[in-house]
Structures are given as structure tokens and as C-alpha cells.
Amino acid sequence: MAVTVEKEKIIQAVDSRDKELRELALKIHANPELAFKEFKAAEWLTAYLEKEGFEIERGVADLETAFIATWEGEPGGPTIGILAEYDALPGLGHACGHNIIGTSAVGAAIALKDAFPNLKGKIKVIGTPAEEDGGGKILMCDKGIFDDLDAAMMTHPKEKTIVLRGGLACIGATFKFHGKAAHAASAPENGISALDAMLNSFAAINSLREYFTDDVRVHGIITNGGDAPNVVPAYCEAEFIIRAKTSKTLVAVKEKVYNAVKGSSMAVGATCEIEEGLLYAERNNNLALAAIHTENLEAMGVEVFEAQKQGGVGSSDFGNVGQIVPAIHPYIHVGDARTHTPEFTEATKSEAGMIGLNNAAKSMAMTTYDLCTDESALKRVKNEFVEWKKSQ
């Protein structure tokens, strides 16, 4: 499939802004900010969009670093959301490439406006903070931020270009074990060990693994193991993430884990308080939308790989968006390193990373153009989503 004359305009529009987009992505990369603290990145992204004629709403969904930037060509077309992420990882900086995600979203929207100022449609760049830790999109879903969209998309950097890759449902849980302090040598009989309750809980969870399906993942760390070796610990704490293929199956897995923890605590006379986090839904990739996006990538000469058949997926708050609107979460090649590593931090500022940024902006702009100009394509996307909703 060759690039059409219309899409060549989009390619040229992105290329004309390549220098600016690189500078923006590298500035965000050099100033990594953690969840809900992305003040610089949010300001740089919105300032660029505002300068280019987008209407800016800052602090949406009661989140200081969330934003919506809107541009409408001709009225009467669909409303398409291009999602931006821009938070970094503790100690690693942009080892997940959110500097590229945020900048490519901005680049796609501005290029589309440049190429087709009379496009029939409304484009929203939606800035979503705290993907790495905090579930910003989940909080924004709860506030109805995505409800008026006809479709949504974003592009994530990766070692391979993949359009269809899943994501597990997951939930975080903090287990707070309460016992009774005592001198560990002279009067241990007066104590109740919160540490034993916690260690027994780890063992009990491990004993469940044989009976979980292959998609289930349960992993945790000890965040408080007591204060001194000669004191029976009165308080200990552990953090876990529990994952499963769907939100529905996650409920049963979660209950098994919680029962194992409660029983382990009771066995030594301790109690456990469970503090549950946000529910991250599984990813619902819209296949019709994915097919359009794949065609655009391949027309640009970008090789698209299939996702591996089993495993190889994590979880993202983008899954919650896909429960509300037709959505895709493709990946773009930026080098050979794996995410969440120091090597990937380097990749997201490399020449390969900047080429990936350029390709992501082009492909999302082209896909958005298709949705705004091809009524049959938009109808296929929306009909698939309606049928999926009926099946839930």
C-alpha cells in the first residue's frame, strides 16, 4: 500500500516540525518528573499546543498536571483523542519513553492541523499524568474525561513496532500486619510477630501458584520488616500487585490471595489490614482501528511485528480507557533495549528514539485523518466496540 497524496501532506507536516519535536522530547527527557509532579513537562507540552492554536484546559479531573488541548477544523466530524504520557520512573528517568509518548501525541495533532486546517473533526490531545504509579487515566475515566471521544490512541516506544499487544488487568494491595511487640530473647512468649504473619503470607501465596492459570501474576516486596532484630515486630508491611487476564477473573484471584494472607495472619495471632489500590482493566484493542493503523505504518515502510502469543505483557491504565471508547495502544521501535532499564533510558534520547518519535507522530496523525475522512472506517471501528460491549 502506497502513501496517498493526502497522507504525504501529513508526513511533510511532521517532518517540518521534526527539529522542534526532538527538542521538546529531549528537554522532557533531561528533566524527568515522577507521578503527579510532571509540572514542567505538562507546561512545555501545553505551551507548544497553545502557541499552535489549540484551546487548553489545565488541571482537568482535579489533577494538576492533567490537561486537554482541543482543536476543531470543520464541525460535524468525530472527536478523536490522542493521549499523552510524560511521567518518569524513580531512579531511571524516562526508561519507559514517556518523553516520546507525550511529544508524539502533540506532534501528531499539530501536524494534522497544519496539513488539513479544514479537517472535519475535533482533535483532543489529552495529557494523562502518573501512568507509572498512580493510575492517572483511571482517575480521569472516573471523571468522564474520555466519554465524548469516538476513538482514542497513543503510541509507546519499544524494541519492536507492534500494534496489537495486550495488557493484563491488575490491582495493587498493601498488606499491613499488626502483632504485639516483646523482647525477642527474654520474653518472646509475650509477643505476636507481625513478621511471621507476613513471611507465612508469602509462603501461602507461593503455594497457590500451582493452581493459578498461566495468565496470573502475583508479585510483592517487603516494605517494612520490623525495626530491630531483638524486638518481636509489632508491625510489618508488604506491597503486592495481582494480575489476571480480565477484571472478572482478577476478582477470584484476588480473593484467594487475600484469604491466604488473612489465614496466615490468624495462624500466629496477628491481624492484617488490606489497603487496596485502583483497578487497572485489561486492554481492549479495537481490531478495526488497529488494522487502519497497521496499514499506515506499513505504507510508511515501517515493519510491524506480531505480539508474542503468551506472556510478555504488563498492565497499564490505558486499559480503562479501552473499556469506554474504541482504542489502540501501539508500540514503535526506538532501539533494541527493553523498557524499565538504564539502556532504554538511553534509547529514548537516541537517534533511533527520535526516528521512532517521528514515525509515531506520522502514523497517529494518518490514522486520525482516516477516522475523520472515511465514514465507513469510523463505522467499522465503532460497530466493533458496540458488539464488544454487548459481549461483556
The chain-level mean pLDDT equals 97
CATH architecture verdict of the largest domain? 3-Layer(aba) Sandwich
User: Which band does the percent of strand residues land in?
Assistant: 15-25%
Query: Largest beta sheet, briefly?
Result: 6 strands, mixed
Structural class: alpha/beta
The total count of helices amounts to 12
Question: Could you give the count of β-strands?
Answer: 14
Poorly predicted runs? none
Helix content: 40-55%
Distance between the amino and carboxyl termini: 35 Å
Pfam family, one: M20_dimer
GO cellular component, one term: cytoplasm
Family: Belongs to the peptidase M20A family.
Domain Peptidase M20 dimerisation: 171-262
Please describe what this structure looks like.
The structure is a single chain. The chain folds into two domains: 5-167 and 283-391, Zn peptidases (Aminopeptidase, 3-Layer(aba) Sandwich), CATH 3.40.630; 169-280, Alpha-Beta Plaits, CATH 3.30.70.360. The longest helix has 23 residues, at 351-373. It has helices spanning 5-16, 18-30, 39-51, 98-115, 136-142, 194-208, 247-267, 287-299, 318-321, 342-347, 351-373, 375-391, and strands spanning 55-58, 67-72, 74-84, 120-127, 151-153, 156-158, 169-178, 182-183, 217-224, 231-232, 235-244, 271-280, 327-328, 331-333. Helix 8 (287-299) crosses helix 11 (351-373). The chain has a six-stranded mixed β-sheet with strand order 1-2-4-3-5-13, with helices on one face. Strands 9-11-7-12 form a four-stranded antiparallel β-sheet. It has a two-stranded parallel ribbon with strand order 6-14. The two termini are 35 Å apart. Helix content is 41%, strand content 21%. With 392 residues, it is α/β, with parallel strands linked by helices. Residues 171-262 form the Peptidase M20 dimerisation domain. This is Peptidase M20 domain-containing protein 2. It comes from Ornithinibacillus sp. 4-3.
